[in-house]
Amino acid sequence: MITPVLLCGGSGTRLWPLSRKSFPKQFSKLTGEESLFQASILRFSGPAFGAPLIVTADDFRFIVREQLVHAGCAPAAIMIEPEGRDTAPAVLAAALHLLDSDPDALMLVAPSDHVIPDADLFQQAVAAALPAAEAGQLVTFGIAPDRPETAYGYLEVDAPSVLDGIVTTGTGCLPVRRFIEKPNAERAEELLAEGRYLWNAGIFLFRASAILKAFETHAPNMIPPARQAVEGSVRDLGFTRLAAEPWGRVPATSIDYAIMERSDNIAVMPYGGRWSDLGDWASVWHETAGPDGVALSGPASAIGCAGTLLRSESPGQKIVGIGLDDIVAVAMPDAVLVAHRSRAQEVKAAVTALRKEGATQADVFPRDHRPWGWFEVLATGTRFQVKRIVVHPGAALSLQSHHHRSEHWIVVQGTAKVTVDAEVKLVTENQSVYIPLGAVHRMENPGKLPMILIEVQTGSYLGEDDIQRYEDVYARCEAKPASEPA
């Protein structure tokens, strides 16, 4: 039985404004009805796979759990990294965790933000790679290139050519001669023409004991603090929270640099199906464009366009392109990106510039996710703010008060159980309740459907840090300062 280990703690910015620090791309529905994370969960399910082990960041833990529920998946564990340390520490911690209960554990390590449309074909590749992994080799998966791509690293394979049928038949693994960093355009053309090079997908299959042995050989200094972090982990509302102090002492580095590029027992399983890491908007266009070379998502229309991506993330916001060639245009409620497709990699630099300006749009997603649901700001002005709040069935906000604002709640769907000081009452659709400044209050959804309300705030300060918590079913009174958002 193979344990999928999904890494989903990253917060890439090359897909801004859709992907942001508070809600990165792996949780977005970029190419289908499931998020990339959910599609990864479903891809690695079936008789050959056990329950997945998730490694994520503290800020994303409730998003992960919610999306797992919607995907119908019960994980083996959700490990919380106190801070991001790149992929090598995450893989090591997962291996140590698995070895606690199974000395022969097999682990398939994969990012959670890749697109692999043919799940059955990829599972065939995993099955073909299994004998090598069971024999103690560290198997990586290499993608047959279909263009001279400069955004990916490459693997040189010890074979005359990997492009003549072997990549689609799953005949077995091949030795890896070396890892190659992202090439320039000229070198990428040469690698494609030679036929002995595969894209490095960053997906791995090995025994937990084999990767631990590789760490002992090539990165022994990482093991003691990682082991202490795993052994000192605590259960917290169903999550496995790694111990923060030793985790902070684990060197931050990638699994490729720490282990793969230094080991002599690396094998590659070539894969000839479609694959993309969706590293920028150009790759999203490549995956979603129709026969006319235009990719549309949401309320978007194209007139006389070519090689163009038009995407709107708001049902009430229409985007129209006229006579555009090789353009990416992405409209969010709070930000719009317009760029030439050939310069899609520069979006990261734009986010850096926005941060220097102090623009909240650089990192903060307009829909703010919480363990109980989510909210979004509909309107704001001097001394007032209007929000839409959605509370999941059975969920509850913390018992709290505010020093600088009062609130007016209008229920527009479902029923809210509302506490205001000593009074507790049910508020149904088309009813409202007033929360005076300083009142101790709580909102709960006692029903079986999502509850939606409109909140109107008025006061001298409307920041999310104006909260004093008294009780919280998600233990945020203990895990975070009471001044942090609800």
Provide an overview of this structure.
There is one protein chain. The protein is an alpha/beta fold and 486 residues long. It has three domains: 2-271, Alpha-Beta Complex (Spore Coat Polysaccharide Biosynthesis Protein SpsA, Chain A), CATH 3.90.550.10; 281-357, no CATH class; 367-479, Jelly Rolls (Sandwich). The chain contains 13 helices and 28 strands. The strands form six sheets. It has a six-stranded antiparallel beta sheet, with no helix packed on it. The chain has a five-stranded mixed β-barrel with strand order 5-8-6-7-11. It has a four-stranded mixed beta sheet with strand order 12-14-16-17, covered by helices on one side. Strand 2 (53-57), helix 2 (61-70) and strand 3 (77-81) form a beta-alpha-beta unit. Helix 3 (87-99) crosses helix 7 (208-218). The protein is globular, with a radius of gyration of 24 Å. The chain starts with a strand and ends in a 7-residue tail after the last helix. Residues 165-169 and 478-486 have low confidence and may be disordered.
